From TrEMBL:
Residues 51-65 have a biased composition (Low complexity). Residues 49-68, 240-263 are annotated as: Disordered. This is Metalloprotease. Pfam families: Zn_peptidase (PF04228). GO terms for biological process: proteolysis. PANTHER family: INNER MEMBRANE PROTEIN, PUTATIVE MEMBRANE PROTEIN YPFJ. Keywords: Hydrolase, Membrane, Metalloprotease, Protease, Transmembrane, Transmembrane helix. It comes from Corynebacterium doosanense CAU 212 = DSM 45436. GO terms for cellular component: membrane. It is found in: Membrane.
Length: 292
């Protein structure tokens, strides 16, 4: 359990369509590219790999609201409701924090859950794609069956670990609002690349959420326990490039990294979690945040 059982909310997340007969064959859509090698796991910027046409930002808001996601107890029992409540909690935090610390007004991202496949502003996505944020329609996409797959990488499927992933993707939306997301270039990877800086920054932003999520009278979350925190760290480590390269049987080659090492990702999450401040996540060295 992470949410207060009597927390009220829901209605924030939409269900994506099945893609309307769209073919997701070899090479088609984001999923086809992913099969090349988990390259887009927790993908930062699929746009680089699949140039989608600019679309109306409201496109991602289409679809039905989730049913039976009205209380924290629903979010504790159901993974899609958990996404819904996590986004509601993220909205509340970023609406205060982003103007206060970065001088930028927060605009809510679209958030879509889907099963099997769906169409996005960045092309077709399938369950194999993994969660990602599409800047073209400013929408984060989740197939919650991914959360179970994370265990195969040594990560945790526990609620706070799932919430870390949701908060990471919304972190990319924050970067989009900051105007920095476009610096990510998977064609220019490496442990010192902008891509890694942006991915670890999204981990750090997820840590900021965990820092604030249980604070205040309106908090939707129960206080985070050490055991829960450990599950989020486990998952942050699991999606490290070195871990993924090892587990897929390849050599560990930092020159090809796009998301950072297990150590980097854990440290980034913890930096945000411990401080609660965007200045702790300034991996692009912009120097323009103020603690508040
Ligand atoms: Zn990412």
């Amino acid at each position: 359990m992470t949410f207060k059982n009597n927390a009220q909310g829901g209605g924030r997340v939409r269900r994506g369509g099945g893609g309307g007969g769209m073919a997701l064959g070899a090479g088609g859509g984001i999923g086809g590219l992913l099969l090349v090698g988990l390259f887009l796991l927790l993908g930062g910027n699929p746009e680089d790999l699949n140039q989608g046409a600019q679309q109306d930002p409201s496109q991602g808001a289409q679809g039905q609201q989730l049913e039976n996601c009205s209380t924290g107890a629903d979010a504790n029992a159901n993974a899609e409701c958990r996404v819904d409540f996590t986004v509601k909690s993220l909205d509340a935090m970023w609406a205060k924090l982003l103007p206060a610390q970065a001088g930028i007004e927060y605009a809510e991202p679209g958030v879509t859950v889907f099963t099997n496949q769906t169409q996005t502003g960045c092309g077709g996505a399938s369950s194999a794609t993994g969660p990602f944020y599409c800047p073209n329609d400013q929408t984060a996409y989740f197939d919650v069956t991914f959360f179970e797959q994370i265990e195969q990488l040594g990560g945790s499927d526990a609620p706070l670990a799932q919430e870390y992933i949701v908060a990471h993707e919304v972190g990319h939306h924050i970067q989009n609002l900051e105007g920095t997301l476009g610096l990510s270039n998977y064609n220019d990877p490496g442990e010192d690349s902008a891509a890694v800086a942006l991915e670890t920054q999204a981990d750090c932003y997820a840590g900021i959420w965990a820092h604030h999520a249980a604070q205040g009278e309106d908090a939707l979350l129960e206080p985070i326990t050490d055991d829960q925190l450990a599950t989020a760290i486990e998952t942050a480590r699991a999606v490290g490039d070195d871990n993924i390269q090892q587990r897929s049987g390849g050599d560990v080659n930092p020159d090809t990294w796009t998301h950072g090492s297990s150590e980097d990702r854990q440290n980034a999450f913890m930096a945000g979690y411990q401080s609660g401040n965007m200045s702790s996540c300034d991996f692009l060295r912009r120097g323009n945040y103020r603690d508040a």
